[in-house]
Write a structure and sequence with these properties.
This protein is of the alpha+beta class and 75 residues long. The protein is built from one helix and four strands, in the order E-H-E-E-E. The chain has a four-stranded mixed beta sheet, with helices on one face. Strand 3 and strand 4 form a beta hairpin. It is elongated and about 45 Å long. It starts with 5 loop residues before the first strand and ends with a strand.
Length: 75
């Protein structure tokens, strides 16, 4: 499947997301099968407030990637 085919997990905090990505980067340093699209954030606009969506993608062995997401509300 294409590289960006994925399924997602939502995590409780941005720090948790970054810690998972850091562990994946440590693994990537010794295993070239690990594929990472690093942490990025963007604002989304809703009717009552804005949300900050922070995400990263990690691939390893499976034919699709895992997307990690944290959604933070910004009033």
């Amino acid at each position: 499947c294409p590289r960006l085919d994925h399924f997602g997990f939502q995590v409780a905090t941005r720090e948790e997301l970054e810690a998972i990505v850091d562990r994946a980067k440590a693994r990537q340093a010794r295993d070239d099968r690990v594929d990472i699209i690093d942490v990025k954030s963007r604002l989304t606009h809703g009717e009552a407030s804005q949300c900050e969506l922070t995400s990263a993608y990690i691939g390893f062995v499976l034919p699709f990637m895992v997307e990690l997401q944290h959604i933070g509300r910004r009033d």
